[in-house]
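Example 5.3 — SIS domain-containing protein
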Amino acid sequence: MNQTDYFMHRSIMEQPTAFKSILTSHNKEFSEASHILGNSKNIFLIGTGSSLHAAMFGRFILEKYVENKNIMVYSSFEFSNYTPDLSRDDTVIVISHRGYKMYSYDSLKKARNAGCKTVAITGVSSSIKKGDADFIFTTVEQEKSSAHTISLTSAVAVLLKLAASSKLEATQEKESLEKLAESIVPGMEKALKLEKELKDMSKKMDFSQRVWIFGGGPNSVTAMEAALKMQETSYVTAYGYEIEQLIHGPVRAADLSHDIFICISTWGKSYERIQNFAKALRSLNVSVIEITDRNDSQEKNLVSVQRTEEEFSPLINLIVLQLLSLSVAVARGKNPDNFRSDNSAFARLDEMIKL
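Solution (predicted structure tokens):
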């Protein structure tokens, strides 16, 4: 099969349109829900897998717009089993694309029982129904690929819309959200045009060894999500780290002669530290791929993206890394859509372990 034949490819390519549609479409419930955020004492963001990463991105976005709030991120499993103290002044936001994951559903139930305001962000036709949360915001159709892409960026679009709307008057909302979309979507569209470059890179470089992906701030989450996509699609051993965590120990397990390092060095507070580490790696002849929004570097294996605000840059950088993950999977002869369901051992594992 060609790379374009996979469901994952289709979902990646549809992300800018879906993101813009969610951010700019009118829905009066967003105004009401965003008002509740502004009046909350604590805001909890909950998810599993890529939905947990969406929650982690959401923390950076909410902190940009919603002032003087405690914003905390929990995995659904942790929130369900190690539930923090909750009150009627708290808001709990649960992100679950399919909706049927038992710990995500149980997290909503525990939050409702504690009297919290609840928000569910989920896909179209998910198992989350009216009454399960105070507000239910649907994103996109259920993904046909097991490697979720568009559902994550769409969930982030919902969180961004809620956060930005909390600072806007009703008369400003439409124009301001359209301007916000215009500052992000062109960069996402430009990233899609890098497909051939990334496809060539996936064939030229040896991804059979370990892959270390690192960034800082919101792009430390980008690194984690990118590693997850590599694991899910091409079954390589990939790790995603915040830059300082990688330096403080894990890098000692690397094979500097064979492993690949991917650094996300777009503009932001972590930029200088990431650049210094990437420079040190290159001096040792380590294979380094760099995602950058600079135009003045002559290093090899650079992937150039459009600059945007640091909190929004993962929306662009993620597309690059999703495309690279897809390309690596196809180059290695793997099906990026099927989650190894054609492997009898993993099929049996799925039967025994309920998600």
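Remark. The two ends are 30 Å apart (CA to CA).
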